[in-house]
Amino acid sequence: MNISITSRHYELSADLKQYAESKIEHLSNFFDQIVNAHVIFALEKYRHFVEVTIHMNGKDINAKDESEDMYTSLDRVVEKLERQILKHKGKLYGKKTPKLSTMEIDLPPEDTEGEVTGEIVPADLIEFPQLSLAEAAEKLKANGKDFSIFANKSTQRLNVIFRREDGSLGLIEAS
After folding, report:
1. Block means of pLDDT (10 residues each) for the chain, length 175 residues?
2. Among 14, 58, 129, 146, which residue's beta carbon has the most beta carbons within 10 A?
3. Could you give the domains of the chain?
4. Angstrom distance (rounded) from CA 26 to CA 45
């Protein structure tokens, strides 16, 4: 990483220059694609300004600070840059949920006869009440829940009735 340092209306000491370089080099621990950095020290009466611009692949990050001490200003600027770098890095490498088409599902191994090997645990049998659509809607309104599963009397299929965000009811019917 190339680091260039400029001072305006201020004579830069060797200690401050070395301190600035070490602080800016430390930023490469957070993100290794930093190309170069430009540090500007400025003094106006009693106000000490530090401005740092970092150039990365595809992004420039800038931070400024002012205080009564150059070291304090530099520390604050580096903290601001760390937050910005971590935010940028999070956007680049954020965890996204994989699409169903790209997910790999591990199926249990099959025997030569086509049967699944391993232990099969029996599940409890659940019986859903047989209701008409109107009865299911009344039941949902009465119990105050967000959804209800029932067997439709007229179609003999499994249905889910649910309350939408706008207060209306929705219906999902299994085929």
Report:
1. 90 93 90 90 92 90 94 94 89 68 60 63 79 88 85 87 87 85
2. 129
3. 2-92 (3.30.160.100), 128-175 (3.30.505.50)
4. 30
